[in-house]
Amino acid sequence: MRPTIILLALLLLTSCSNNRYSEFKGNIESISEKTYSCSEKFGDIIKGNLIEGRSYHFKDNNISELVLYNDEGERTYSYETEFKHGKPILRKIKRRDFAPDTYETIQVEETESLISRDSRNEVWLRTQNSGNDTIYCELDKHGYLCLQKEKDTKGNTITSEFKRDKNKNIIESIYSVNNEVDNTTKSEFDENNFQTASIYENLKYEWKEATAYKYKTDETGNWIERIAYINNTPKSITIREIEYKK
């Protein structure tokens, strides 16, 4: 259940966000990321099997393409984004079908409109249309996602709310189905905007999980290794290869 929630959160943020990530530093061309299971033996972290992979490609400091891979290294999803004046206007989503090497392509057009403004903030409504499906997103004046609503295949209304700190890191996310909260995640970040801890709570199943993260960084200050400890036990290690623009 937990991997599904993580994937869903990633898809939500990718679908409506402005594709800027505050943790990245420097002029990045691309990032390749692989996550493995891990264990600890005599104080050393032992890398296990591949869990998932991701790759990011950047254009004008925005993520222009995000690709997801499964535990066999096979490409499952990809998101290509076109920008105009720094804002996403068109996304192409490729989703792997059940048949090997067969992909469904979804083209998503986006429009924005200002729905409220006060002395401190603005709220924008971003609408995505893909065939008969529409996603409503509320963004702040900086283009960061605050709230998202959509219908699933069963007609349920799925709502995701996001609270951010002053650096725009998501410190709390609330996921609801038909206005009933299903699960929440609260996170902490350090001065580098690295996530250091999170608490995931599933209200439906009365299940809670605490995760802590430790990092190694490169000379630019981007992390290249992250170890996740769930309930104080090392569970996964993520390795990044970062290519910088020359």
Structure commentary:
By secondary structure, this protein is mainly β. It has one domain. The chain has 1 helix and 16 strands. The protein has one helix at 2-16; strands at 28-41, 44-59, 62-69, 75-84, 87-96, 103-117, 122-130, 133-139, 145-151, 157-164, 170-177, 180-189, 195-202, 207-217, 223-230, 233-244. It has a 16-stranded antiparallel beta barrel.
Kindly list the characteristics that best describe this protein.
16-stranded antiparallel beta barrel; 246 residues; mainly beta; 65% strand; 6% helix; globular
Task: Please outline what is shown here.
This protein has 246 residues and is mainly β.
Count of DSSP H/I helices: 1
Uncertain regions spanning at least 5 consecutive residues: 1-15
Q: How would you sum up the major sheet?
A: 16 strands, antiparallel, barrel
**How confident is the prediction overall: mean pLDDT?**
80
What assembly state would you assign to the polypeptide chains in this entry?
Answer: single chain
The total of beta strands comes to 16
Overall domain count: 1
Helix content: under 10%
Percent of residues in β-strands = over 45%
Task: Determine the N-to-C terminus distance.
Answer: 41 Å
What is the general shape? globular
Order of helices and strands: HEEEEEEEEEEEEEEEE
Radius of gyration: 18 Å
**Structural category:** mainly beta
Largest beta sheet: strand ordering: 1-2-3-4-5-6-7-8-9-10-11-12-13-14-15-16
